[in-house]
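Hey everyone, long-time lurker, first post.

I ran two proteins through the pipeline my lab uses and got sequence/structure pairs for each. Pasting them in order. The first:
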Amino acid sequence: TVQLVESGGGLVQPGGSLSLSCLASGFAFSTHAMYWVRQAPGKEFEWVSSITNTGRTTWYTDSVKGRFTMSRDNAKNTLALQLSSLKAEDTAMYYCARDCPLSGGRLTSQCGYLGRGTQVTVSS
């Protein structure tokens, strides 16, 4: 059974930083591209970032470029998202995900697998 377990969210002031982690199990982690997506209250899911199975290439939605950094450790089956220069509009539940259909930087339907999420709240 595919399991994705996120951790590391919390409350942070604008301009602050957070590190999110995801522990994957139940599948061959090193053979899959992985994703972070988020959902703000009352809004649809939004793609945040992607990483290839090797970790050599990453992509980011425009609103987080230069502020968020995604990485992975295939030896430990873990995914990470480093968030910096956080803004109020980054407030959302953040999910580690697999098999996300994207077109033009947007999710076209639900990701195949999602964790339970970790809450990030940016507020003074």
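...and the second, right after it:
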Amino acid sequence: QVQLAESGGGLVQAGGSLRLSCAASGRTGGRYAMGWFRRAPGKEREFVATITWSGGSTYYADSVKGRFTISRDNAKNMVDLQMNSLKPEDTAIYYCAVAIRNYPAAHPSEYNYWGQGTQVTVSS
């Protein structure tokens, strides 16, 4: 089992920045990709970004490309999401997840462990 705990959410004005962190604990010895997803009010969960174990491959949703950056520190079992130039439409609960394998997948079915989420609210 892997436990995930997100932090860093909050309220920010449009154009501002936030940095989300996700700490993994438990059985973290495997090599797997990790990702961030989000769920906005009244909408389905959507893919945001993913990163392979080495950090050598990343993949972003078109809606965040150029504004968000995913990174990881395997020594600390953490993955971060730096969010810049935030927009009101970025308002959502953000979740980190562990992928089933070391592949930068964008579909939720490719992930088997999820955190509880952290709220990000961007005011206009």
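Reply from user beta_strand_b:
Welcome! Quick read of the second one: The mean pLDDT is 96. The CA atoms of residues 32 and 74 lie 10 Å apart.
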